[in-house]
Hints:
The complex is a heterotetramer, with two copies of chain A (about 575 residues) and two copies of chain C (about 290 residues). Chain A is an alpha/beta fold and about 575 residues long.
Amino acid sequence: MSRISIKIVGAQGQGVNSVGxxxxxxxxxxxxxxxxxxxxxxxxxxxHSSYQLEISNEKVRSAQEKSDVLVTFNHHGIKxxxxxxxxxxxLLHQTPQWKFxxxxxxxxxxxxxxxxxxxxxxxxxxxNAKPVLGNVLITSVVWSLIGRSSDELKEMVRERFGHxxxxxxxNFKCIDEGTQLIEIEKLVLPEPxxxxxxxLLITGxxxxxxxxxxAGCRALFGYPxxxxxxxxxxxxxxxxxxxxxxxxxxxxxxxxxxxVGAMHxxxxxxxxxxxxxxxxxxxxxxxxxxxxxxxxxVLAQRPGPGTGLPTWTAQGDLLMAVSAGHGExxxxxxxxxxxxxxxxxxxxxFNYAEEFQIPVTVLTEKQIAESLFTxxxxxxxxxxxxxxxxxxxxxxxxxxxxxxxxxxxxxxxxVSARWLPGSDAPxxxxxxxxxxxxxxxxxxxxxxxxxxxxxxxxxxxLKRVLPEPELWKVNSEKLIVNSDFSGEIDVLVVSWGSNKxxxxxxxxxxSVAYLHYTYLWPLKTEKLVELAAKAKKTVLVEGNAQGQLxxxxxxxxxxxxxxRVLKFDGRVSVxxxxxx
Amino acid sequence: MSRISIKIVGAQGQGVNSVGxxxxxxxxxxxxxxxxxxxxxxxxxxxHSSYQLEISNEKVRSAQEKSDVLVTFNHHGIKxxxxxxxxxxxLLHQTPQWKFxxxxxxxxxxxxxxxxxxxxxxxxxxxNAKPVLGNVLITSVVWSLIGRSSDELKEMVRERFGHxxxxxxxNFKCIDEGTQLIEIEKLVLPEPxxxxxxxLLITGxxxxxxxxxxAGCRALFGYPxxxxxxxxxxxxxxxxxxxxxxxxxxxxxxxxxxxVGAMHxxxxxxxxxxxxxxxxxxxxxxxxxxxxxxxxxVLAQRPGPGTGLPTWTAQGDLLMAVSAGHGExxxxxxxxxxxxxxxxxxxxxFNYAEEFQIPVTVLTEKQIAESLFTxxxxxxxxxxxxxxxxxxxxxxxxxxxxxxxxxxxxxxxxVSARWLPGSDAPxxxxxxxxxxxxxxxxxxxxxxxxxxxxxxxxxxxLKRVLPEPELWKVNSEKLIVNSDFSGEIDVLVVSWGSNKxxxxxxxxxxSVAYLHYTYLWPLKTEKLVELAAKAKKTVLVEGNAQGQLxxxxxxxxxxxxxxRVLKFDGRVSVxxxxxx
Amino acid sequence: MNQPKENAGLSMKDYNHNNLCTxxxxxxxxxxxxxxxxxxxxxxxxxxxxxxxxxxxxHGNMSDTLVGYRxxxxxxxxxxxxxxxxxxxxxxxxxxxGGDGACFSEGVGHLVxxxxxxxxxxxxxxxNANYGLTTGQASALTPHGExxxxxxxxxxxxxxxxxxxxxxxxxxxxARGTSGNIKQLTDIIxxxxxxxxxxxxxxxxxxxxxxxxxxxEYLLGKCYEVETSDFETARKAAVDTxxxxxxxxxxxxxxxxxxxxxxxxxxxxxxxxxxEVRKVDVSAxxxxxx
Amino acid sequence: MNQPKENAGLSMKDYNHNNLCTxxxxxxxxxxxxxxxxxxxxxxxxxxxxxxxxxxxxHGNMSDTLVGYRxxxxxxxxxxxxxxxxxxxxxxxxxxxGGDGACFSEGVGHLVxxxxxxxxxxxxxxxNANYGLTTGQASALTPHGExxxxxxxxxxxxxxxxxxxxxxxxxxxxARGTSGNIKQLTDIIxxxxxxxxxxxxxxxxxxxxxxxxxxxEYLLGKCYEVETSDFETARKAAVDTxxxxxxxxxxxxxxxxxxxxxxxxxxxxxxxxxxEVRKVDVSAxxxxxx
Lengths: 580, 580, 290, 290
Ligand SMILES: Cc1ncc(C[n+]2csc(CCOP(=O)(O)OP(=O)(O)O)c2C)c(N)n1
Ligand SMILES: Cc1ncc(C[n+]2csc(CCOP(=O)(O)OP(=O)(O)O)c2C)c(N)n1
Ligand code: SF4
Ligand code: SF4
Ligand SMILES: [Mg+2]
Ligand SMILES: [Mg+2]
């Protein structure tokens, strides 16, 4: 794949994101697939942060280890990130009179790094512009560096400040200054491809928020916690358009309880949190198990334990999602991997929650929640996704109900009828104690066995209907999802979540196949066993220390992997050489 | 084994427990091993409750399905429990003019049940005694029924009411009345054995409380929740003698946080709860993982999910204890099985918590917490148990410390030095964020990897030092723990927790061996694999629906059991025929 | 309320459940149970028209003793559960029952923030000043020094004055009743359900088994009825219980908007969240991402 | 306090940590950091003689900026964590720092019950009226109607009056300071640490990044200092902030016993729980089981 990478670094609050997002949008509109990755520290100010853009005319889903261009706001960036440049890379910095240390100078010479100093302060002074305009200035330098016309940039700026004429003019001046400034060889971008222009540039959190709205979710009860907060903020910001009820509750227990109350009343509602908040929700998740109340909980992972590394990424909460919450009850644990399925899987999550009357945990990761993806807008608008509410009874059906239908232990697949408070029908008690068919107390052993069996039967039903893991393989030179599981495999890579992006970006021939798990509990392993049997080598890739999916797989089917690539440093990129 | 069983039933609050406990004490003192099992409903009043006593001159640890004597306080007991009697059993009831239904009369006739009516109300009226004295009256009837002398009973009553002369006399009168009343064939008890006289009659909760005190635990922070409450109440009741600080906190999160604060300060403290409360504690358990703070949490199991069956028993929280709490961190999960190890394992729990600076979850069950066991007093007083505090530095050691010793990533087995606030030494930060050696923030990938590896290394150290599962086998006609794992095995039964009691009581020849797991996480499976390889049949016995230990075993070593006996109805007794 | 509605003709038997009642003799919960049934009947609300949520505790066992849509949730969490339901479907009145242990210890935060948030729901506190179901431990509403289960030498924490506490949160409806005065309690509950906003109803409940300090008789002797008055007067009357205990609807602000009514995003919308579950076209929202 | 102790001669540098400080320019946390260091130095407490506990939030990042035994725990839980430590070893003064989000939203229950329990510890609230670290969401102490992150149309919940709330719990020590008046704050903190019991110190903290309604300048203009007075007077002065904001040690009850002092079981015992960890002979306790 031909791609280039631009990394923007600086202190938090200096405008790193703003420059990154502006460049990304411009490039996508120019016909490129863009992937944007944010890294920052868990402090409000002064922490080092970066925004890396990967740009290609083919699908790109991850960031490379090295960049072609490094744009830095301060001298920390020069020191910390110089070595992130490839040979022949460009360093664009803004630190007046910067003197490189000996080692750095050696590196620059040895790697033919081009160093460009941008006298931002001077220029802004000359234009009598506020510091914030530095962002436009820098963007325009980058813009000209990659050989794009300044008109494109001006168009975007106009979109944003159209109504403020003065500001617009000043912005244009900055752009002109920036474009003229640099007198060096331009970077050669691959040929643009129009197909990207109509696509969307969106983060995982935004896509997930839209996916929830699309799925008929009408309320979000949350509590801020990185990296779940962007979802909360996004849905709050668009509540005027979505008419969704967005409530920042006083804590996570409240958030999950309000969600359950709202679900019980009959709407679709959800909550979102990270690991620590999820812990607090687990008692309520267990409640949903016995009261058979649908629930959707987004668990946005970051490195733990404890407060951990709030702004970094991880896949360390899988086993928790599968086993937390006391007692035994059916549940679904599923994971998104990018913006595309962050959108589409929300419909699945709500559908399974309602069809099986269970709690559904949707895993995401900081890497997905805060990264910028280029995704197909049509996918989003397609009508593959439909609202399914399972055995929810209303209308004429209500007339036939008896109270004891609510928890009828003989219901097929363990899924009994559900109807909403307010319905003109016999009433029942949604019960957190063990109960009989109409929700009354029943402490007999026979009843306990019957009701537990009723509920656990749902796991069998789920295993039947949940989709198989996806097999990605190069077929006729295109990397696609194969529905046909036959054919030769040299290396079978198995993983889940955001790893999919790095792995797919690294597959370039037919020898490597990737099996991607979206549904993690209950876990289907038939296909895996089949594929593993014929693969020469099986490799498990996970962003945690224990190889948690591997543990579940072993538990389920006994399979052990030939190799495990485990990474748990808060960073995403899996060294590709380890996979192939 | 020759044993008899007496079951006392009635409504909650009628005196079922009081009669049961009085009989148990008298019998133990007379030279019997007694096991007492309580069953009751999760309501304050009117719920049906029972107290079953198993009496033998040999070790007895569980209750049979059927009883020799049924004592009932009300007519519900007659109706509900008549069929709990063996052929030739005795029904002692107090319901005036009771008429048996047709079916019941048939059962009585067919099984030669002896029915005795005790006119309690009449007698009490005659003696001008309060209703509460009915308990002594009934006890004395039971007493004479099993052929014991009334003096023994009087002695016990004197112990209790010695200082209140009037009351004493009235009690004695009741005893005399009760003893003279019954004119039937006495039940034949096995020959008593003096060895039991010096033993203790104690519940699992009481033993656990004493074990904690013995282990140097100086504070209990709790919140009432059945079946953890008896431990809380017991330790509160004896605080005057133990001088322990007992605090009923406002909720479980507070309880566990206070415990952690106290542990950090340097004392030994613990908390106790049941499944729902444990959920709420999991975030803090995860905190202990990263801050490397020792913690001891007792998790008293009852059937879940949700509020479940609060007063019944279960083993459904094992996977939760192993996996709950976000992120990855080392921990120990262990389980008691009876009053004996409820006492002794508390020392282990605190020792492992301090030696490895980790959270330790001690599982118990309602069946252990509230059952009455006859245990060896000498065991309790023995000096096998020692306080070990691991790398806790004080005295002169303090002088050599650097702040960066606290979380030194190179510490052997991942266990670095720990010293207490107030010590005259360099200070550090106990940190819930990912941190470097002195507890300062460090968000670098290298540090995150190093610290995670440091912590997870403890699991290896633990696996090395944790005891193997216990192999129980009949050897020279005695059922004992074998240190020698060689020899033939027909059936290998594997289980944990209270099941041990039923299983051991059912083993009567050399063909069946029982492997008992006390330490459940990290899980040692080497011996198991060895034993399973030569057993003709392997049987897993668990009190949950999924076979959770079986899942962990499969995950760890791939082993699958030939048979699984799973029970999840809140009751204890495993049908013995299923095992052998 | 004098117009017969479609449900007119409701009687106690419509609300009676045939499950066994398991409270102790003389328990104040019987009175509260009667009052809630009466209130609903007098409001002409049929069992299928209400949602009654229960915490875990003796009071929570009421879930077994009456008909109606019920949710018996977790210990300490009833207020938030009920609030979620009330927001999702304001057409179904939501009543939450909780204990003093549940709502002033385990889950006091939910109470604090529900009062602030002014969700439209009715909260009825079974204030028996102890943890009944777990056999008589102290709650925050147990007087200092009482000897309780786990506090055999007497509690050392200060008593929490529930009225001062709730008034500090600027409530829109505060009432106090007792389990012994069913008629008054019925009226209070009716007023609470009719109130638009969070109705806090503190019911002094006899618990003969574990509460020996505020018995049925003691409460009857000490309580007197007051009329609703302004905030400061009501607060003063409510807080000081040294001589006598003020009961009735103590304070009500009918002008305050509920949480839902204040939400910009929901203004001018007639449908309820429960009516809006369908696949929603998000095309319009995609513009900013292209 | 005028007698030089063994630690005399302490200076700021003993408390300075060389980790980087990451607060925004103009953040009130700098002032609070200075005040706590000064207070400890003036109390002649060396870094190894104190335990300072931190909640999670901007304020919590203070854990990186000073020397001393520190525990940086979980969001919302600092009070209970600190209380446990204070009970285990009363010889080491325990100071807990928490944010308004942490201690009035997520963990408000801990505050409520710590005040009631009167643990001997000092609690310092960084009251910046928002969630700083998570980029400016509303807390319970954010004024009604402010437009915040996740509340772009303004909050709809009532402002919680922290003083009225705390006073309703019968506290033994209440003070208010501001991050802008370091000298006064130093004195307040010293008084708090010296107080035997739970010291509640509400520090109005400037957060130039997210709090635009109670800026440094605004606070300086509105605050005035009062002397400690009786409960009712102090409460009144504390609660009403419409005109001016009363600061200083507002209320102190020196006669109240701490939690630990009231415990029957611990009366007359000189050792601390931390001194008592050893194998204990339980033989005497076995009698009742034989
Ligand atoms: C998380 C959790 N903790 C503890 C319990 C045990 N529990 C059940 S009811 C109860 C106290 C009940 O007291 P209160 O709320 O006052 O109700 P009452 O029984 O007095 O009506 C407790 C502690 C529980 N069910 N769940
Ligand atoms: C259980 C949990 N929920 C949420 C968070 C995320 N979080 C961290 S700090 C914070 C709010 C901080 O606000 P405040 O306590 O007022 O402190 P400030 O940053 O304003 O000093 C939140 C919500 C968390 N760390 N843990
Ligand atoms: S314990 Fe008290 S509250 Fe519970 S049922 Fe008995 S009297 Fe009622
Ligand atoms: S966000 Fe506010 S509280 Fe946080 S560091 Fe910045 S100014 Fe201080
Ligand atoms: Mg109560
Ligand atoms: Mg704050």
